[in-house]
Design a protein that fits this description.
Elements (H helix, E strand, L loop, with lengths): L1 H18 L12 H18 L6 H30 L10 H19 L8 H25 L11 H24 L6 H18 L14 H21 L18 H18 L3 H54 L7 E2 H14 L3 E8 L2 H8 L1 H18 L5 E6 L2 E7 L3 H15 L3 E3 L2 E3 L3 E7 L6 H17 L5 E3 L2 H20 L5 E10 L4 E13 L3 E3 L1 H11 L2 H23 L6 E5 L2 H5 L3 H12 L6 E6 H4 L4 H11 L3 E7 L8 H4 L4 E4 L1 H4 L7 H16 L2 E4 L5 H10 L3 E2 L10 H7 L13
Parallel strand pairs: 1-3, 7-8, 10-12, 12-13, 13-14, 14-15, 15-16, 16-17
Antiparallel strand pairs: 2-4, 2-7, 3-4, 5-6, 9-10, 9-17, 10-11
Helix pairs in contact: 1-2, 1-8, 2-3, 2-8, 3-4, 4-6, 5-6, 5-9, 6-7, 7-8, 9-10, 12-13, 13-14, 16-17, 18-20, 20-22
Length: about 750
């Protein structure tokens, strides 16, 4: 269509230019171009007004222009009839019908512009628009009348009508120019600029009509109509192809310097001087003075405007800095400072909007397993680097519609809209696989593991409730060993409520005297002599009876109560060990082991508290053995420093459950270990040829070489005890020798073999 428009325009322009020097015998042929282009541009209007991707206001604008296109076709036909068909000779006289049709065209254009809803300006903007319109209309109208209309005999009887049409055309031109300059937010800016250029070109060529009075067979419509229709056809095609996500941006009008008033003043002043030059005398002198004063006033105003412009530029620079700072603050309010992803407020805002709109969505809570180990072992800077790497992997794997936010620590939350349960499960599996790929950070190889809890939105949900359910599911995944994804089930709430009530009761257990200690003997192989005891905490609940340590110890670790429990246990153990030492002297248990949690080790001043307990009780520190797990001291963090301080007090350190966590033989060097307790899971297979037996056999060689005592835990059969002794183990504990017992019962065993079952080892 664009190529056809250019071809028709070329034909019309060529016909007109040749007609300036050649008399056409069939002038009606020249009207083919304006008529065809009128039809073509109307078709272009129809196409763009029916484009479904455009906003309604934009389509309405082009629908109004479509009406002006039909009026243009009628106007061209009417003008052909006026100039070539109504009389025996060609004429340039327009009939009233044609003038009315021209007015209708301009009215449709102005109405289309006035209906645009996006041009929202202040009253001052509208005042400037009206002033500029008045300046342009008065100037152009005056010049047109002075140099064209009033001197042309062809316009006799139509001067006032044609002047009105010219004024209306000028108003339309400045309206389109203003809109094109300012933008509307609905129409393509380049399309508006093309419309403005078409109206201006058409008006300029149309004003040449008085100079063609001696060529009645040639009309400016042959040139002005193709110019207007070419530009408007190009504008329509531009608008039709414009993307909906590229609206024109609103720009302030007040700061732009307009030369229009100064050009108008210069034009009218020049006209005045030309008019008075022929008269001479006082009138010419006054006109020159007026022109000089006008020039000086204009120069003075431009100078003031330049000064104001410099001041405003300074203000703008400061405002830009302020806006940049505000944008930075706004970003920080909604984004996590460490990872750069969204934070909890941003998640809450988006989740609230999704839920309010009734959009289906899922929330998944992700937590890194053993993240504290990374922090303690490799330092917090490595932990931060891991969090950033995980954030990047999450962003890479999720869809654009998804949201990932960091809640704090090593917890991330995902908002997953528009997916069913099956697709969410598949996406989370892909996310977990991507995040858990091994990575190297600052020379360290890491293999992150994720525990994920996920829940679907329900009616009446809030973001906080969805996070709570996902958190419950995530902890269920951790309790099952971690590195898995668990969906929320209502039964989990019941279990969580039960845990919460149990945790509340646990906080009262010390005051209610519900806690007590049992001591399990550690014997020396093969004869079974009592070599020491391990203190074990028990809880007798008034309703539930004996609660397993596997239940209440993890509860205490999660809610932080483990620190208070550990302090109470330590006080009881030190008191009991001191009492045995005073009562039995050398026959007292050589070592009394007490379990120390990772949280206790990280408590500020913990070694000092232990030192104070030992001083007050008078207990020989060498008799007290601090049992710690390998995960509690893995690395070079606060926990390992605390263990070294306990060793410096004279206490012995036992590494408990060795081999069940992220075992590292370097611990046996870095940590001042004096006792290595081999976990029951390895001891169970010691009588066969399994891998466990190989590990148990290998460990005794390592401990002997490092001069570390090895204690086999969980010995339940005589065969296991016999096999361990043959391997070289000298210490063991388990139900085969004795079950945990009260402190008073231990007194009966002091200096006596625990059992005679081991006497047949030889």
């Amino acid at each position: 269509m664009v190529a056809l428009a250019f071809a028709l325009f070329a034909f019309g322009s060529g016909w007109f230019l040749i007609g300036l020097v050649h008399v056409w015998s069939h002038p009606i042929v020249g009207w083919f171009s304006p008529l065809a282009m009128s039809v073509l541009v109307t078709y272009a209007y129809v196409r763009v007004s029916r484009s479904p991707h455009l906003p309604a206001a934009t389509r309405r604008f082009w629908q109004h222009l479509t009406m002006s296109g039909f009026a243009l076709i009628a106007t061209v036909v009417s003008a052909m009839d006026d100039m070539l068909l109504s009389g025996p000779v060609p004429t340039q006289q327009f009939s009233t019908r044609t003038l009315v049709l021209l007015t209708v065209i301009l009215a449709f254009v102005l109405w289309a512009l006035l209906r645009l809803p996006a041009w929202q300006r202040t009253p001052g903007d509208w005042a400037r628009f009206a002033i500029d319109t008045g300046v342009l209309v008065i100037t152009c109208g005056g010049l047109l009348w002075q140099f064209s209309l009033r001197h042309a005999e062809v316009w006799q009887g139509q001067g006032a009508a044609m002047l009105g049409i010219c004024v209306l055309a000028l108003t339309g031109m400045i309206a389109i120019a203003k809109v094109a300059f300012a933008g509307t937010g609905q129409l393509d800016r380049r399309a508006l600029q093309l419309l403005s250029g078409g109206v201006a070109g058409s008006s300029a060529t149309g004003a040449l009509a008085p100079f063609l009075v001696d060529r009645p067979y040639l009309s400016t419509a042959i040139l002005s109509v193709p110019i207007a229709t070419l530009f408007t056809a190009l504008a329509a095609e531009r608008q039709r192809r414009a993307k909906p996500e590229e609206p024109a941006e609103e720009q302030p009008l007040g700061r732009r310097f307009s030369v229009l008033p100064y050009l108008a003043v210069a034009a009218m002043t020049g006209t005045l001087l030309v008019g008075e030059a022929g008269r001479g005398g006082d009138q010419l002198f006054i006109a020159v003075c007026v022109a000089a004063l006008t020039a000086l006033v204009v120069i003075r105003q431009i100078t003031a405007l330049r000064d104001n412009r410099r001041l405003l530029d300074t203000v703008d620079a400061n405002l830009q800095q302020l806006n940049a700072y505000q944008r930075k603050l706004a970003h920080e309010v909604t984004h996590d400072a460490l990872t750069g992803i969204a934070n909890r407020p941003a998640f809450t805002e988006q989740a609230t909007a999704r839920l309010a709109a009734g959009d289906g969505c899922h929330v998944a809570l992700l937590d890194l397993d053993d993240f504290k180990v990374v922090n303690d072992r490799l330092g917090h800077s490595m932990g931060d680097a891991l969090l950033r790497a995980v954030s990047g992997r999450l962003l890479e794997r999720l869809r654009p519609a998804d949201l990932v936010a960091r809640l704090g620590g090593d917890e991330f939350v995902l908002l997953l809209p528009g997916l069913d349960d099956e697709r969410v499960a598949a996406l989370l599996a892909e996310v977990a696989d991507a995040v858990q790929q091994p990575l190297s950070l600052h020379g360290h190889d890491l293999a992150p593991r994720l525990s994920i809890g996920v829940t679907a939105a329900q009616e009446g949900d809030t973001p906080e409730e969805m996070i709570r359910r996902a958190d419950v599911a995530m902890y269920a995944a951790k309790n099952m060993g971690g590195a898995r994804c668990t969906w929320f089930d209502p039964i989990m709430d019941q279990l969580a409520d039960a845990d919460a009530r149990l945790a509340a009761d646990l906080r009262q257990a010390i005051a209610r005297d519900e806690l007590f200690l049992l001591y399990q003997p550690i014997v020396e192989l093969p004869h079974g002599r009592l070599a020491g005891v391990e203190a074990l905490l028990r809880w007798r609940h008034p309703e539930h009876g004996l609660v397993s340590p596997g239940v209440f110890i993890p509860l205490a670790e999660r809610n932080g109560y483990i620190v208070e429990l550990g302090r109470w246990v330590l006080e009881q153990v030190v008191r009991q060990a001191a009492e045995w030492e005073r009562t039995y002297g050398p026959n007292a248990p050589e070592k009394v082991s007490v379990n120390i949690s990772a949280r206790q080790l990280r408590e500020p001043g913990f070694p000092a508290q232990v030192a104070e307990l030992l001083r007050e009780s008078g207990l020989d520190p060498y008799r007290l053995v601090a049992e710690v797990t390998e995960t509690a001291v893995l690395g070079t963090g606060e926990a390992l420093d605390a263990v070294r301080e306990l060793h410096a007090l004279g206490m012995r350190v036992a590494l408990d459950d060795f081999g069940t966590g992220q075992s590292s033989l370097s611990l046996l060097v870095d940590c001042p270990v004096k006792v290595l307790k081999v976990d029951k899971s390895f001891v169970d297979g010691v009588t066969g040829t399994s891998a466990q037996a190989v590990i148990v056999d290998g460990l005794i060689g390592i401990t002997e070489g490092l001069r570390i005592e090895a204690v086999a835990e969980g010995v339940e059969t005589e065969d296991q005890a016999f096999r361990l002794h043959k391997m070289g183990y000298r210490f063991a504990q388990g139900f085969h020798f004795a079950r945990p017992m009260a402190g008073d019962d231990i007194a009966l065993l002091l200096g006596v073999s625990v059992t005679g079952k081991v006497d047949n080892f030889h």
